[in-house]
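Reopening closed ticket. The problem is back. First fold of the pair:
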Amino acid sequence: MITPRTAGTGTDGCRRSRAAFTLIELLVVIAIIGILIALLLPAVQKVREAANRMKCQNHLKQFALACHSYHDANLRLPIGSQGRNSNHPDWAYTGSRPRTPFIAHLMAYIEQTAFAARYDFNINFNSPPNTLIITTRFPMFDCPSDMPQLTGHPQTGDLKSNYGVNWGSWSFRQQGGPTNGVFPLNYGDQKGRAPFYLDFGARLTDITDGTSATLCMSEVLQTPWTQLPGQAFVDRRGRIWNDDTFCYEISTRLTPNSPRGDYGYCDPSDTRYPCDPLSEGLTAAAAPDAYMGARSRHTGGVNASFCDGSVRFISDRIDPVTWVALSSIAAGDLPGDY
């Protein structure tokens, strides 16, 4: 009679021990894996950010080339903004011309011809049928390094963007700064004129400082729709569809990612988006004097396109004099290294 073998018993009747990790060995392996992940994660994040930065550069490149295509068709760059009346003492909206943002002119040149065909330049940007366009999310308008605002304006619904135009070195109303000011923020409007302004888009021949030495566009952050008590408007930084001040108009008054705050409708207590303390409770009358700097979530600087179509990464440490020099089209200044 044959006796069956029991599980785990050899032919000699001895019990075999199963091969397995001890608890200590498992803990060591887990610790090693954790260390490897900790070492690898910064490298992965660095590669991801490099890809995001490159995508932002590509977006700016497309916008710059679109500006050139527009210039080829219209013999000038798109106007920076239309709507406010510069002949009015408060630069108020008098209804004399439809409110039109810079980006509306470029839609046909960034492969959005269907939307461009629907945009009506005879009415304000926030009136139907234009509302269909301004409430549509275009991936090209967002930089993946920043967190996009998923909702639009509380009333008009228009969505924000991470890109804005070069608006000189001072404010919406006064691009070159007061002539009795402190250098280099004292160019005055004629000397300090940027490629884009109210009812103005420069011809490339107007850019006598050189298209390769004149900023076209750069980056801004998409801020929350915050509105403080007593403040006339919500935080509109990044509103690419709104022709108004403090929306997409970038001033070189502040160097890239400056810790000094933007001056406009914003919350000084929100350190994620630097805001000048004097902005609290800002009235509508102060709108033409608002300004904001170029900002990004990239480490060490911002991407910027130039009027020759090139795109470069500008360091946060750029000399302020050079940064201002890059904003004017015909000041005759010579920017330093950057």
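Second fold of the pair, where the issue appears:
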Amino acid sequence: MKAFVSFVAVVFCAAGLAVASAEKLTGWPDRKDALYKVGEPIAFTFLLTDDKDTPLPRHKFTIDVVGDPSVSQQATLTTDAAGKVRFTTKLDKPGFVRCDRTTGIEKKMGVTGAGAEPGKIQPAVPKPADFDEYWRKTVAELDAMPLKPKIVALKSPDPEITLCEIEVASPGGEPVRGYLAFPHDAKRGTLPAHISLHSAGVYDSNMKRAIAEAKLGRLSLDANATGVLNGQPPEYYKELAQGKLQGYAIHGLPDLDNSYRRRMLQRLYRSLQFLKSWPEWDGKILIAAGGSQGGWLAVAAAALDPAVTCCVAHLPGGGDCSGYTIGRDGAKRGWLVKQLAQHTDPATVLAAVRYLDAANFATNIKKADCLVSAGFIDDVVCASSVYAMYNCIASPNKRMIDNPTGAHYGVAPHVSAEGQKFIQAHVEKMRAGRR
């Protein structure tokens, strides 16, 4: 049975008030893995039904076909007697193609996608010659800073878990703020450490996630990405997201030294320093995991700190940021393209962003076990940018999860489950001394 993704497109009557009917379009490639050779025909089948899953024969609909390199077209298709229609395209270079449809509320929804030789995708521009030296100096400055953490014991909702709120100073003003959790009966030097990293936005640290990871026998830290206060009412985070921290991803650029995302990475490294200082850490296993922005942070963690032994990055953003300049899909809804369009000096900003690019960090991941996932209909972090980063990971211990029906905003359950399996297998391997 072929896997496919579906969405509902609501069609309004002429009066524009009452709903006349609803259509559901599903689509899938003719290969289960949705992978092809360059230049090879990529065939998709579409099925158009009503809201009761009854096929709609002889109906027309329009799809947008977008992808790499510079694939951009519209196709109006007509279903056959069974409500189906076949559509064929191809890619002349390694990359991905995605078929979208616009719903009645003018929002594009990914329907299906495919890739052509993604293992050959490379970043659009090379790593800056002084990239490694720049980050060596940054790390050295952080290593010279005393931790002096503030630790407040909290009442844990789980009697088997010790829970603390922590704060660690970091350059630039915003400290590391998060929740630390671990089994209350853990002995010194016995626990693998795990840091959970957040997707983009302004949020509280996730206490429940910290506890859930601790329940798996880990020293668990969940630190919010923006260094904001924990445990505040929703209005606090909303006000920051719509005010001071709106568009934070590009704050300070093109001045790299004063950029907000550099400070995020400094906080990330300070978080790792803190975890490694905790007496219950086993001194061997250090896991960094996250999705979207959190995936970028996980990759950067494994690059900046060789003590990180496992990196799980789902739909990681921030890779191949210059890809759109050579005609790649470029995740047109992603943070960078939108922000560059509003900046007076986009070329200088893009040059600075190269020092924050996940693909460039990936070249410095030498040994860590890495699991990465890509969604073929993801129009926020396009699959080509994920592969451009993944192909740069220097460690031989890496694995990609392809999700042909994967969009953004929420990791698919089966992908999330594979991530947990990967981490547990890593822990068991390390404990057995098989690294």
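Update: turned out to be a display glitch only; the data is intact. The chain is about 25% helix and 30% strand. Residues 5-118 form a domain with the Immunoglobulin-like fold (CATH 2.60.40.1930). Please close again.
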